[in-house]
Design a protein that fits this description.
Chain lengths: 322, 421
């Protein structure tokens, strides 16, 4: 219980809680939209961190869980008229089950081989969905605009989706902290340092890795459903974007791998910067180049990420930042 | 007496001045209408996106130079634009459109280029009670989702390639077999699904109906499946894959009566394929050789609005030093429709402008414009028709892009695919 009183826990939770409350109090559409984009990436980066940060396994194709889970949730929503949050949870369950099955096969691979296999899984999922008629094949799925009327119109529907996402991200951060500070999490960290030694010490590495993989896949599936519902449609190209998958890795590394607060900060900083450059009159034609240079500098000079760098700087901060 | 006259004259002068001032004060100030949109400045759709912006900017320059649009209260509105790069990516489209409406105070919206991005943006337009004119976004499904403020400029995907079947019937009335090979993306799949229905409805046999992944470079597996007696090959996707497909068809000596492909053939760059381009038919939303004119409008009992084809082409070439493509024309006409609707409504109020768009039935340099107003497919373009071009050789042997269909717009007769020597 003591762990829950640590600043390492309540600092990221408080950050997201206050942020969401601020958006709800201000009640402006543009603030909500900006916060939705940022929170979505905070959720995705924090989910990936459960695998990447705690076990050290680099998943290049993690977006597959966002895509397939999102597709499944959207299918339950559009074809079977299930409520939004139930569809989203079912989308997450599909992602987690899929991760369990994939994990049994590919988590036996290590290093570059595992990374390559995850890219393969993403491409295979895209090809499967493009030919799977219940998911609309290449043209994807869409919901009729009248679906939003059930929420009292598109405005209330978008606000409700934002609140669901906000709560989901809060849960992700809590789960991420709980895993890190549990016996199970200790096993994962041991795998990250030396998998063979961890197994000798009694860590059941294959099972632990698979469970971590399932946790890190559940939430992207849930977020995917909320995101596609908000857009009103889903297509294979948007659902399995390798570019987005790599962005998730960058955000985790930027904030600090294996920390709870790191992916939150990394996602807010990276996507915040991209959003600023994209809409700033001075930089809007050069945004991709500037974001690229910025990232290069971070990777060169702060390889441990923002939180990692701060933790290395002082003992006091190490106690505060998790 | 003289003093009284002077005082009276002074009073009259002051009164006149006051009246002039009052009249001036009563004259409504010129309004500025902001057109907001996102465009694909970067990403896979950047060529199409940039041409669309060029077209829209040219329209804005023209309408502002003419003093803007007069409203019912006697004031005039002028136009300015605000746009952001959507990177051809859906990720931020809703965020950017919300910003355009709330922060940049956009009064009217133009859609992003692709159907997927437009679907996401339309939710925001509808939420904020803003009219959105779509340029690009050809998929029919966008207009069948229940939106009431989204209006399409392009001929929808369902009628994109159906003219090629009519061309086949004209060239070879005995033709029976059509093979369809297409890119597996939303737009191309929508087009060929309706093409298949249309062809089967006309009694044709679809002997092959297969999709290929975006980015495919080897079409041999599909080409090897074509029966020797296939009468037509139709489909394709976007520029790169469709060009490669056309090239490989030529290399393998596959020369049915008709080869009709999507997107790539109308682009001037397609001529770089040389012999492989000869005889290829392409569907285009608009061509500089299009024969839409005030006389044609009169004959069809339609109102003509905006510049003539020649005026548009000349102005575009002068400003951008290149031939306008249908994407450029699409950008221009999106603005032109907003201009016409505001002029008809005499107001910039969403409800009044929407009513003007619903009732619109006009001809412009871009062709006939009329929207479906039924709840099932509100905003779907029902007036505009595709133009079919074919690459042919002129007497000197140079490749020339000719308009071959519909009959009333053609610059040359359509020819069967020349057999390989």
């Amino acid at each position: 219980m003591k762990a829950w009183r640590q600043p390492g826990f309540w600092l990221p939770v408080l950050f997201i809680l206050v942020w969401g409350l601020y958006v709800l109090i201000v009640r402006q559409d543009s603030t909500r939209e900006q916060a939705f984009t940022l929170l979505m990436f905070v959720g995705l980066a924090s989910s990936l961190n459960i695998l990447l940060g705690y076990t050290g396994y680099v998943s290049f194709g993690h977006i597959v869980f966002f895509g397939l889970g999102g597709y499944s949730g959207f299918y339950f929503l559009s074809a079977h008229n299930l409520p939004l949050m139930l569809s989203a949870i079912l989308g997450g369950v599909v992602s987690a089950v899929l991760a369990g099955l994939i994990g049994l096969a590919v988590l036996r691979l290590r290093g570059a081989y595992f990374a390559l296999a995850t890219i393969g899984v993403n491409e295979a999922a895209r090809a499967f969905v493009s030919n799977f008629e219940p998911f609309g094949g290449a043209t994807g799925l869409f919901v009729n605009y009248s679906v939003y009327e059930g929420f009292g119109g598109p405005g209330p529907a978008l606000w409700r989706t934002f609140i669901y996402l906000w709560i989901t991200v809060l849960i992700i951060v809590v789960v991420s902290y709980a895993i890190k500070n549990s016996r199970f999490g200790l096993g994962l960290l041991a795998i990250r340092e030396d998998e063979d030694a961890a197994m000798v010490m009694g860590v059941q590495a294959p099972r632990a890795k698979t469970v971590a993989f399932m946790f890190s896949a559940f939430f992207p599936g849930l977020i995917g459903t909320l995101y596609f519902f908000k857009n009103g449609n889903v297509e294979p190209g948007d659902a399995f974007s390798l570019h987005m998958s790599i962005e998730m890795l960058v955000m985790v590394m930027l904030g600090g791998m294996g920390t709870v607060f790191g992916p939150v900060i990394g996602a807010v900083a990276y996507q915040g910067l991209r959003g600023f450059l994209l809409t700033n009159p001075l930089f809007k034609n050069l945004h991709l180049a500037i974001a690229g240079v910025f990232l290069l500098l971070i990777v060169l000079f702060v390889p441990a990420g923002a939180i990692g760098w701060l933790r290395e700087r002082s003992l006091k901060l190490r106690k505060v930042l998790e | 007496m003289k003093g009284k006259v002077t005082v009276m004259a002074a009073l009259v002068a002051v009164f006149c001045l006051f009246m002039v001032g009052a009249v001036q004060a009563q004259a409504p100030a010129a309004k500025n209408v902001v057109i907001g949109f996102t465009a694909s400045q970067t990403g896979k759709l950047n060529v199409e996106g940039m041409r669309q912006i060029n077209g829209l900017n040219l329209w804005m320059e023209r309408v502002n130079a003419a003093g803007g649009v007069k409203l019912a209260d006697g004031s005039a509105v002028k136009f300015s634009s605000k746009f952001y790069d959507d990177e051809s990516n859906k990720g931020r489209v809703q965020e950017l459109y919300t910003k355009l409406i709330n922060d940049d105070k956009a009064n009217f919206l133009v859609s992003p280029y692709s159907s997927g991005l437009t679907d996401a943006a339309a939710v925001i337009a509808q939420q904020n009670n803003r009219i959105m004119i779509t340029a690009g976004a050809a998929s029919d499904s966008t207009y069948k989702k229940g939106f009431t403020l989204v209006f399409q400029t392009y001929t929808p995907a369902s009628r994109y390639l159906t003219g090629a079947v009519d061309i086949l019937a004209k060239l070879n009335p005995k033709a029976k077999k059509i093979a369809i090979v297409h890119e597996k993306d939303k737009f191309s799949t929508d087009v060929v699904n309706d093409l298949k229905k249309y062809a089967e409805g006309k009694g044709y046999q679809i002997v092959l109906f297969e999709g290929y992944d975006p980015g495919t470079t080897d079409f041999a597996p599909f080409i090897n499946k074509f029966p020797a007696d296939v009468d037509a090959i139709m489909g394709g996707g976007h520029f790169a894959d469709t060009s490669t497909f056309a090239k490989q068809l030529h290399e393998k000596g596959i020369k049915p009566t008709v080869v009709a492909l999507l997107v790539a053939p109308p682009e001037p760059k397609f001529a770089e394929l040389g012999e492989a381009a000869v005889g290829i038919i392409g569907a285009s939303q608009w061509e500089p050789a299009a024969k839409y004119a005030p006389e044609v409008a009169k004959a069809k009992n339609l109102e003509w609005f905006g510049p003539t084809v020649a005026e548009f082409v000349e102005a575009y070439k002068k400003k951008y030093n290149e031939e306008p493509s249908y994407h450029s024309a699409g950008g221009f006409v999106a603005g032109l429709l907003i201009e016409k609707a505001i002029a008809t409504a005499g107001s910039i109020d969403t409800e009044k402008v929407k009513a003007a768009l619903d009732a619109m039935d006009i001809m412009t340099f871009y062709g006939h414009i009329k929207f479906d107003t039924s709840p099932a497919a509100h905003g779907l373009q029902v007036g505009h028709d595709m133009i079919y071009i074919q690459w042919q050789k002129d007497p000197k042997g140079a490749l020339v892009k000719e308009v071959v269909w519909p009959e009333e717009a053609k610059t040359k007769d359509v020819i069967p695919m020349p057999k390989k020597k």
